[in-house]
Design brief:
By secondary structure, the protein is of the alpha/beta class. The chain is 35% helix and 14% strand. The protein is built from nine helices and six strands; from the N terminus they run αβαβαβααβαβαβαα. The chain has helices at residues 2-7, 22-28, 42-56, 68-71, 74-83, 112-116, 132-143, 180-191, 208-211; strands at 12-15, 35-38, 61-64, 87-93, 122-125, 150-156. The chain has a six-stranded parallel sheet with strand order 2-1-3-4-6-5, sandwiched between helices. Helix 2 (22-28) links the parallel strand 1 (12-15) and strand 2. Helix 3 (42-56) packs parallel to helix 5.
Length: 212
């Protein structure tokens, strides 16, 4: 999982260690390129990742835990969804074998994944350890696409300690060049003597050619 984050360009995160995600933090101790900030509340982690992107243009990950810990990120996720800010939340859940039970294993939320779907651009549960590289690459592809926003990946905590054989996590695709229609629009603006631009969200990176 940590390798998948690094290969997809995510080397910063915010979160709180817990009994269900402690395996992640054990690996982060050895991931020297990764920078992590422990916060006092999961809601703070969500807002920190949102602000991190707005300031740096880089996606950060939020590590939360089963049930209440994950749910505390919902308010900042709503802000990220409305502002088109890409934020990745990696939340754990109870062990895979317990998902079909009646509840009460350890403060889990019934249908946790379905709570996140309306507030994210991408929400998926990992059902086997071998899916981790694929799902992380898929989520980051969505967040770097034309409709950015938050994503939620749910991992049953037992899979964090599983072993498997799989291909390395795919590297992120190369960034596309400026589309011809956008290039034409930029050219028209540059030729104008007194241009006025009314621009919505999600175009921070596209403003750079206009400045020059």
């Amino acid at each position: 999982m940590v390798e998948s984050l690094l290969r997809n360009g995510i080397d910063c995160g915010f979160g709180i260690p817990s009994i269900h995600n402690i395996a992640i933090y054990e690996w982060l101790r050895h991931a020297t390129p990764f920078h992590h900030w422990v916060v006092r509340h999961e809601q703070a982690a969500g807002y920190a990742a949102d602000g991190f992107y707005r300031q740096s243009g880089r996606i950060a990950v939020v590590f939360a835990s089963t049930g209440p810990g994950n749910l505390f990120t919902l308010v900042p996720l709503l802000e990220s969804l409305q502002a088109d800010t890409p934020v990745l939340v990696v939340g754990t859940n109870i062990a895979s074998a317990l998902h079909a039970g009646k509840g009460g294993a350890l403060h889990e939320t019934p249908d946790q994944l379905e709570v996140f779907r309306p507030l994210t651009r991408y929400a998926r549960r990992i059902s086997s350890a071998s899916e981790i590289p694929i799902v992380f690459a898929e989520a980051l592809s969505v967040l770097r696409g034309p409709a950015p926003g938050p994503a939620f990946i749910e991992i049953p905590h037992d899979l964090l300690a599983a072993t498997f054989t799989a291909q390395p996590a795919p590297a992120p695709p190369p960034r596309e060049s400026t589309p011809p229609d956008l290039a034409s629009a930029i050219h028209q603006v540059q030729k104008a003597q007194r241009p006025v631009l009314l621009i919505g969200g999600g175009v921070r990176g596209d403003l750079e050619p206009i400045r020059h």
